[in-house]
Amino acid sequence: MHFRGPAPGVGELEEANASMLARNSDQYSLPHGCWNSDCSIPLPCPKASWISGVIVDSESSEPLQSSSLTASSSLLAQVIDLAEDAIISIGEDQRIVLFNQAAERIFGYSAQEAIGKPLDILLPERMAKLHRSQVREFAHSGLTTRRKNERTQIRGRRKDGTEFPAEASISRVDAGGRVLLTVILRDITERVAADEKLKESIREKEALLREIHHRVKNNLQVMSSLLGLQARKVPHEEARQAFEDSQGRIHSMALIHEVLCGSPSLTRIDMADYTRQLAAYRSRAHGAGKRIKLTTDLDEVYLDLETAVPYGIIVNELLTNAFRHGFPGQRAGEVRVSLHEQADKSIQLIVQDDGVGLPDSFNWHAAPSLGFRLVRMLAEQLKADMQVQARNPTAIQFRFGRR
């Protein structure tokens, strides 16, 4: 249905506001206005003006009558007042023209106190200038609204001067040459407090986990040191080697906890840093010095603790084998460790050396030594594809996926 009448202004929200201002009055007088011939939405007559929250005809000073507009404005007023969020409308001069019940509850001003006042009364003084500039920029941006995911956090100021965190979005309506900006604001004090409490709880748990990793590392290092001391007292070379091998395995696990303690994340371990430190330790432990050059080619790879432990023991065993058996006597050479992330996100580890190579009769799958058995078992645990090249150079390659 269409009605005849003069060109519209921005009226529906103003009418609703007048309705809300009068909601507790015994003489409930709803605003009303003219009708646009091109729109079925009731809008106030351009001749109307505000007097104590009621639109009147500026020529007659009598309230305009329209039962249809009264019902429409009353319904809109109820919808706006029932909203949980503060709904505040301002004109281009950034003075308040609409202030719903939620806004009254959040800011402490009554609608009568807020209407006609600058928006600055709801903002901290130090931020008022910036907000005025941002609102003015939005008003002339040509945008009609900001999407929900663009809601920004601001600070609001209550009537008593206290500040609170808020989340707000803004929309714009153009009609009859006038601009109406509507801010929908939510008090997020409780949410921010809950978030901060959660963050504090997480920080406490992280501190506890770091302390646990630190203590595990210390305990493992003590065990490694005890094995080292005991190895010095063992007269038999084979038995002493067994002690040293166990010491190296424990060190490889202790080093994981050490790297984890210094990491910004307790869920991921920087395997490039870890591998570099482990390889250097093995080179020193075997007295390689300058005779055996150690080279690393390591991508930035991060693994979780469950994957890092078997990975570390595998690298330790392969390096031990290369340094101990690849360069007998005073033979010089190079040991190289490579760690790369492949295009399919799988991880490729290669430990190779240019030493004497593996014996012709060597059977990787049946090798009886504890070191090789550990490597086979841990490779199965990682579901790794393993390939062995016997010489020129001797290379053992693992390829495994992330968990």
Task: Give the SSE layout.
Elements (H helix, E strand, L loop, with lengths): L11 H10 L12 E2 L6 E2 L4 E4 L2 E4 L9 H16 L3 E5 L5 E4 L1 H7 L3 H4 L10 H15 L12 E6 L5 E13 L2 E10 L1 H45 L3 H25 L7 E2 H15 L6 E7 L3 E2 L1 H21 L7 E9 L5 E7 L16 H12 L3 E5 L4 E7 L3
Helix pairs in contact: 1-2, 6-7, 7-8, 7-9, 8-9, 9-10
Quote the distance from N terminus to C terminus.
64 Å
Low-confidence stretches: 1-10, 23-65
Number of strands: 16
Q: SS-based structural class?
A: alpha+beta
CATH class of the largest domain: Alpha Beta
Instruction: Name the CATH superfamily classification of the largest domain.
Output: Histidine kinase-like ATPase, C-terminal domain
Major beta-sheet overview: 5 strands, antiparallel
Tell me the overall shape. elongated
**Biggest sheet: strand arrangement:** 6-5-9-8-7
Helical content stands at 40-55%
Number of domains: 3
Looking at CATH, which topology of the largest domain would you report? Heat Shock Protein 90
Mean pLDDT: 79
Q: How many DSSP helices?
A: 10
Rounded to an integer in angstroms, the radius of gyration calculated over CA atoms is 38 Å
CATH architecture of the largest domain: 2-Layer Sandwich
Sheet-strand content, in percent, reads 15-25%
- Which series of helices and strands comes N to C? HEEEEHEEHHHEEEHHEHEEHEEHEE
